């Protein structure tokens, strides 16, 4: 029986993870959870899983539990930079991290890969796009991978006139066409910053240069990513937009287990699938993320901190939607990047970026 520590247990990923654990109760034991504000949902977890021994909702408690408790898999579904240190601490113990926290690899991917090599831990991605890539390369020689292509729904504003972006409300931006997610990642999907983060993740997860990682807008969200091999063959992973599949795959990897209640994909019922190139001019957050990833060093850490700062201001109604990209670019233009040497350095960049932005009137 694998012992699971679930961080972010009350969010959308957390709830889906709990469903997967319930489905195979003889294979998994949920030994601990963290939550942010939703105590009612946390209490429901305790009622549903009598195996839970650890409950934490502060940074200090979370880190202590990750460093000291007995678990086999850490499911990291914490939102934002707050998930970085738990990933680091789990890998230092040689644990497997089922990773939904994009920011861990965005801000410190090179450092995290060093930890994986040194302490023999592992990361299995939960993101549907990176799970798709993982599924496509099973049984293949990695040197036969020519490129990977990550799909994007395009968000709710794919067809909206860019001249009206300053009129977008919080409610508009939270209305994602295909996925049900938390507010922060939903805004990142609307700006396409999320897709830029996923390119940075793919670079670190699969060791591919940025020139071999593509993006295609696919509004139906049926193909989650595809891999092109050196002989020209292409393998795509398809499925309905449901996070339980990649979560269960991460928990059971490299095996597959039956999911009886999940609707099956009916291509004839879908009828047609469409694909477009992303518009970098219309969605500058995507451009900024790609540029920061290619530049490397501490640029992605500054990018992430600025984005979290800007998204929070938008969600509070303090800036307009199109200001998110302006704030991020303002910060990136002023950031003096360094080569990443330590976890402490990354944390300092995150802290200093936020403090600096608080002094600016946007």
Describe the structure.
It is globular, with a radius of gyration of 20 Å. The strands form two sheets. A six-stranded parallel beta sheet has the order 3-2-1-4-5-6, with helices on both faces. Strands 8-7-9-10 form a four-stranded mixed beta sheet, covered by helices on one side. The chain is of the alpha/beta class and 362 residues long. α3 (59-68) runs parallel beside α4 and α5 (102-119) packs parallel to α9. The protein has two domains: 2-125, NAD(P)-binding Rossmann-like Domain (Rossmann fold, 3-Layer(aba) Sandwich), CATH 3.40.50.720; 134-219 and 275-358, RNA polymerase sigma factor, region 2, helix turn helix motif (Rna Polymerase Sigma Factor, Chain: A), CATH 1.10.1740.10. It starts with a strand and ends with a helix. It contains 15 helices and ten strands. The protein has helices spanning 12-23, 39-48, 59-68, 84-92, 102-119, 128-137, 170-173, 183-191, 193-206, 244-252, 267-270, 284-295, 299-315, 323-334, 343-358; strands at residues 2-7, 28-34, 54-56, 73-76, 96-99, 122-125, 145-152, 213-217, 223-229, 234-238. Helices cover 46% and strands 15% of the residues.
Task: Give a summary of the structure in a few sentences.
This protein is α/β, with parallel strands linked by helices and 362 residues long. It has helices at 12-23, 39-48, 59-68, 84-92, 102-119, 128-137, 170-173, 183-191, 193-206, 244-252, 267-270, 284-295, 299-315, 323-334, 343-358, and strands at residues 2-7, 28-34, 54-56, 73-76, 96-99, 122-125, 145-152, 213-217, 223-229, 234-238. Helix 8 crosses helix 13 (299-315) and helix 12 (284-295) runs parallel beside helix 14 (323-334).
């Amino acid at each position: 029986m694998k012992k699971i520590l679930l961080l972010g247990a009350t969010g959308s990923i957390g709830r889906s993870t709990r469903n997967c654990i319930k489905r195979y109760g003889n294979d998994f034991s949920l030994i601990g959870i963290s939550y942010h504000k939703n105590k009612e949902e946390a209490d429901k977890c305790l009622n549903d899983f009598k195996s839970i021994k650890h409950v934490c909702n502060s940074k200090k408690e979370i880190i202590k539990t990750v460093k000291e408790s007995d678990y086999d898999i850490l499911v990291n579904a914490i939102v934002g930079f707050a998930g970085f240190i738990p990933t680091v601490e789990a890998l230092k113990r040689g644990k497997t991290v089922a990773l939904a926290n994009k920011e861990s690899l965005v801000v410190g991917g090179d450092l995290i890969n060093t930890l994986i090599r040194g302490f023999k831990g592992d990361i299995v991605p939960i993101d549907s796009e990176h799970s798709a890539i993982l599924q496509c390369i099973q049984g293949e020689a990695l040197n036969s991978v020519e490129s990977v292509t990550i799909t994007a729904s395009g968000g709710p504003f794919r067809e909206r006139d860019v001249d009206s972006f300053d009129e977008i409300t919080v409610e508009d931006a939270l209305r994602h066409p295909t996925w049900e997610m938390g507010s922060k990642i939903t805004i990142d999907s609307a700006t396409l910053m999320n897709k830029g983060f996923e390119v940075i993740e793919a670079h670190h997860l699969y060791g591919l240069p940025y020139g071999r990682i593509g993006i295609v807008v696919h509004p139906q969200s049926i193909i989650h990513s595809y891999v092109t091999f050196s002989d020209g063959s292409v393998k795509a992973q398809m499925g309905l937009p449901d996070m339980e599949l990649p979560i269960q795959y991460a928990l059971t990897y490299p095996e597959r287990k039956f999911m009886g209640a999940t609707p099956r994909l009916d291509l004839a019922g879908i009828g047609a699938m469409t694909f477009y190139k992303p518009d970098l001019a219309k969605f500058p957050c995507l451009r900024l993320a790609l540029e920061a990833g290619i530049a490397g060093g501490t640029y992605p850490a500054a990018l992430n901190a600025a984005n979290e700062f800007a998204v929070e201001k938008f969600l509070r109604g303090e800036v307009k939607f199109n200001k998110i990209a302006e704030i991020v670019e303002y910060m990136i233009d002023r950031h003096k990047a360094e080569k990443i040497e330590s976890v402490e350095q990354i944390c300092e960049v995150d802290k200093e970026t936020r403090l600096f932005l608080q002094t600016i009137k946007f």
